[in-house]
Specification:
about 500 residues, BirA Bifunctional Protein, domain 2, OB fold (Dihydrolipoamide Acetyltransferase, E2P), alpha+beta, eight-stranded mixed beta sheet
Length: about 500
Amino acid sequence: MAERVFTEQELVRREKCAKLRELGIDPFGHRFDVTSNSKEIKEKYESFTKEELEEKKVSVVIAGRIMNKRRSGKAGFMDLQDRYGNMQIYISINDVGESEYELYKACDLGDIIGIDGFVCKTNTGALTIHATKYTHIVKALKPLPEKFHGLTDIEERYRRRYVDLIMNESAKNIAFIRPKIIRCIQNFMDKEAFTEVETPILTTLLTGASARPFVTHHNTQDLDMYLRIALELPLKRLLVGGMERVYEIGRVFRNEGMDPKHNPEFTLMEAYMAYSNLEGMMDLTERLYQTIAKEVMGKMVYNWCGNEINLEGPWKRISMTEAIKEKTGIDFKKEMSLEEALELCEEHHIPLEEHQKSFGHIVNLFFEKYVEESLIQPTFLYGHPVEISPLTKKNPQDPRFTERFELFIGGREFANAYTELNDPIDQLERFENQLKERNLGNEEANDIDMDFIEALEYGMPPAGGIGYGIDRLVMLFTESESIRDVILFPTMKPKD
């Protein structure tokens, strides 16, 4: 390992660390019992006058990181940051004594300290803790970034998230909002009588979605395995077993590119409801989003990626063929030969790979080119071609299409739902067609899961199923433009 080189500031901090040890103080501290925090103090006492607080003399003990320090002679101020925000501290040698005041004088920005004191207001009306005791807890050996700018290198923000959370209040807010959203989802699903379950992350088959997998190896079994790309087939097995309403929130892994909309590992929620269908999943989804908006965020309108998004219902519902016809005038709903569809591709300069030379793939390519980015307000787009929907029931009136929808908001997909295919004969045929596509070069085609076929042969009730990208959902509600803003530790290329 190369020898570490320290900056002048870092060397000074290490010298201060050694001096603390000489004073018998552990630079990296021990338990410290707090009685309050910045949020609680502000909520309880912001409305009090200076005189009322002097009369009450409320004692508190708080701890946090020094973010700002202003000293003049034998007294000074600090801004102390805890999990909720900053709290101003006033400290005087007359209150804490000479030895503790010397610790305060020697402290650096970034150090973690504890303060005993009482709540007051300054002459300018700023809520403040008047310190009566100063306790050193942890010495920061590295200086914080410059206070007004923090980490300006976006890559470094994501790579050193711990510093980003210290310096960037928005990043910390998102980190706290995300689990509240997930808890709201769980409470909502509980009220809808769903059961949360866990299914395997390691699998021997590539099923449940169209994606390239990460491959690993089980040493004891001498067996190559995949990290799951979806949650679907194990959850549908539970419908066969009679659980009727199940869901899972979990990490899935897709060996694909990284951009502001995609991370190779991400959080997915899939839910399956026996005796429901496409419309049932639309209704469930609209209620879920509106519940999060009201209960967690307290608003229905969001400014996201340059668009004003209104989650008030009812949301638009339109078929894929209708949406394409609105934009291009082409009606893929009418009977059309493959030759006619190929001619349309050529006329509209849509390139095709070998495995895409089918009616269904061509319809989807037209949608992606002419429609997808225009779906700004919440829109349920339904009626996908059978070729791109291997796990979905066919439309009884037109078997070229399926009972599937995707939710689009801001031109991006947020959810994917089916009236689930429960016909084992049809399902096996779809799996076999997927293998044909793989032979034509489609690396994302599914494997045949014969155990799942056998499960269907025992009988799976008709059902609706849906998958939600939780990261993208959090992006919308926190008005974040990059998926890396809502994942605490996004995948990053290692530094040299």
